[in-house]
Fold these 4 entries.
Entry 1:
Amino acid sequence: MFNAKKETKKIVQFIRDYYKKNNLGGVVLGISGGKDSGVVAALFTEALGKENVLGVTMPCHSKEDDKNLAKVVADYYGFELINVDLTNTFDTFKSEIDLLGNYDDSVLKNSDINLKPRFRMSTLYYLAAMYSAIRGKTYIVGGTSNKSELYVGYFTKGGDSVHDISVLADLTVEEVIAVGKELKVPKEVLYRVPSDGLSNQSDEDKLGVKYSDIAKYMEDKESVDVETRKKIKKLHDNNQHKFVIPTYRKNY
């Protein structure tokens, strides 16, 4: 049985121990206005103090609600929140791609969706280096992916897969919500319908399965119906390339 109070304390201690061991100072977090980034922000604020947390909103042809709810989180926990609008950066890149040929939008859709988190991750690392220099202590980038997302490969290689510390990777969506309740994450953020803020679809619409079913499947495959089982297995199997980089080794 998942004990949210106990796990919350353990995660907070995990962060503190890692920072002490590696002489680190602060964290940079992409704040999307969703539950995962809200819970991660709450955990780091509890572990490091609000003065050592930097939240970043990075709109890129995205919904205004994302930024508004990110501010709700930052205001509630009291950490600094800055905005870096990536819309013009994205548009400039796209204009260069247009010079390569007149491609149909359907061909570019997946490339466009994945480009945005890659720009965002570059921004977070840029700011981590900048704040490290300004404040004289090392800032690192915190990851926000949960166990359910990771199991089915719902992340972007070179985008949200890149970070320096991960605190939700062993928690299902339901467990993330339980930790969020423990930390009093604002309800409009904690219970917001999960979405990437990029494709105008919910996560579950894109995946074709519910997060609750993914959690059940990970616990006991037989607990979900055959059709759902097949979908989850296919997502899991087809995304294994995201986890391992094949590397040739000399054999002598």
Entry 2:
Amino acid sequence: MNFHKKCQLALVLLAASASNFAAAQSLLNASYDVAREFYKDINTSFVASYKKSTGKDVKVEQSHGGSSAQARAVSEGLDADVVTFNTSTDIDFLANNGLVAKDWTKKFPHNAAPTSSTMLFLVRQGNPKGIKDWDDLVKPGVQVVVVNPKLGGNGRMAYLAAWGQVRKKGGSDAQAADYVRKLYANVPVLAKGGRDATTIFLQRNIGDVLITFESEVISVDREFGTGKVDAIHPSTSIVAENPVAVVERTVAKKGTGDLARAYLNYLYSDEAQEIAAQHAIRPSNPAVLKKYASTFKPITLFRVEDYFGSLAEAQKVHFADGGQFDKLYTVK
């Protein structure tokens, strides 16, 4: 084969390689802090499922941080194709900035929340402080690790769970505010996100109890080894939905709209719902939820709407600058 033909063949092979590379679309999912392991397993499963059903190769990449910090990053230019958060207000923020459809809650089933969680307590092995319920968290000498509610959904849900459990027991808003003030007086440092809170608790060895999502129990066992913590299920806690949305700005630019929708729809599949349950994230599929009844302990649950109107209203009243949290919390 002469030099000219060799060059032609090389160009053909290079073009074919470039074509194959271009065909393998990539997707970026901007997600909340403690969902790393869950989405690692989801992505592996989705890539295989998508290949099987379409014959196409795809790559899914992840970005994790406090939910609100992630929303701001997307707003400021992070080219996420989809967002999978733990509070609707962070997606509302993107919708209000024109990055997500205004009617995003109608784009997918269950108000675009394929999974949910709740808040519980992680204590050190053997529960040395004897913590059983919310009242124990405001006792003298108990240090509580929690996420800053102005930075992440984990922290907002912990705050609303603490406030709402007082109301659920028949208490007034004034009594709830008094309880929350006492609770945050026992907080030595506010974490930036859910995983940061876990690191503070386990690696820096600060605090007696960590308020976090139910799913963090399994994550801690996998990352730090079983037996480091005990999970305490309080008598009452909050439903924390995990909403999802397509970032219209990004998919319009990258041409990934169909892929982004396929990815989020996959979260409702039986396979994905099983993966959620295996990570102690509550599936929306009732059959899968029932199957994992031993994972999801019975807790009296209330919804944000029961005591706060909506998450958007709670955001204004409690977490906006100068709101209830700023009035109740004294910076250490």
Entry 3:
Amino acid sequence: MKKIIGNNNIDDFIILFLEKNLTEKNLMLSSIDAYKNDLNDFHRYLTKNRIQLLACTYEHIVFWIDSLKKKSFEQTTLVRKISTLRQFFNFLYAEKLIMINPVTNIISPKKNMILPKFLDETDIKKILKYLYSNNDTFKNFQTLVLTELLYATGLRVTELVSMKLSNIDDGLESIHIMGKGNKERVLPLAKITKKILQKYLESSDFKKFKIISGQRWLFPSRKSHLTRQAYYYKLKAIAIKSGLSRNKISPHMLRHAFASHMLKNGADLKVIQYLLGHEDISTVQIYTHINLRESLEAIKKHPIRNALRED
């Protein structure tokens, strides 16, 4: 280690940092690659300005951050790069490879909250109206059931398309899902969802496909079960036929719509968190901002507000 310090070789420091994160934090390789790219960028900055790593100060890092801002990086990228550098210097300080930590007083800019795109209730009605009017083939009927079930439960698209018949209880009252982290959740089904699901299960076409695919998938295809990509493209086509932009719909946006509309109609945030299968409630709180935005728009149209403006 002393040899590394003596040589002041930043490449060796970076390797040590990456190895520690890979082995001890069990990070994905994509995260390690991002760390590596960020630190290599910082290395180039030091080299260009003839700054030795061990002589790097708070002021040098502030200048580096300013140089990033001039490159017009997105806020999320800027926050990530600063976070990477903070972790790197914290590591060097903890390992006693540096005596003074230059990032101690560095303040990261706040992430801009990116609200998810979502469909309003009018959009959902247009899509379902089209699907109910065009379910004469098994594939179309299957797409209708997929969409009803997704909007009714907020399932992840992978959870949805890979559902097995064993996920549904005998009375069609609920479905059992094994989600991320092998955590099971039980999702109740509304009457309209149960009705369309029962009709689907009793159809002769479903029974025929069930035999072909091995009698276990809820949404069978010729080989196994419908893929999420296939459903994605079906939704895009339906959007156009429903009079919506194809960019306005995806399975994930239907999941967002489920959560947002549930909250708008009085559902508890904790309940929505459970139904979506999120471990951290802060992930779900984004939907409060969506509904706040709607509320602000409604206030702008309030007759009292408009009357005051006229006065």
Entry 4:
Amino acid sequence: MIKIENIHKKFGKVEVLKGVDLHIGTPGIHAILGPNGSGKTTLIKSILGLVIPDKGSIKINGNNISHQWKYRKNIDYLPQIAQFPNNLKVSELLNLIKDLRNQNTRDQDLIKLFELTPFLNKKLGHLSGGTRQKVNIVLAFMCDSPLMILDEPTTGLDPLSTIHLKELLKTATKNGKTILITSHIMSFVEENADEIVFLMDGKIYFKGSTATLKKNTGMNNLEAAIAELLKENHA
């Protein structure tokens, strides 16, 4: 579905992506991991067309996305920090996004799942961080796009909401969706991800299953395996 070839990106003198090659051809959950400043956000924003690489190409379903925009209709995106006007009510935001997407949605089922009915007439600026994140998850999952990009989706969620998120992810993958996730919660990644893509200093150092990464590093959990990768490549 996604084919990235030799993309480079500089911001001023800082080279953030240094010839990244990445092919994601199968449905499932693909975790994009790496330390702060590794290039994860720039890579995601490049796929979304929010950052234009200086060199290289990105293709989705065989089509080069350069100077295109219609392909974004087939992507559901949850940013790490979603910025919406604080004076909008939750119901107004949901209706706005539904009007923009112009698709059948399942927002009512998700509102019920995350118990958001009491908050529909409240303004976003009056919500707690966790409740806002629930609203963001409803926005990300209410359409039926084949590609999802979720940046730190568990931020602020209580344990029950995290369980609901995991259930949504399992259903999405069963339905053949391709999901890119970034997260600093390694237990969440280990439990849910089908593939790990480890990015550091603008390059990919590992791509494969959690089991393979643990075997390669000699570690028995993902967090320790990632720490070992960091040590190996900083040595």
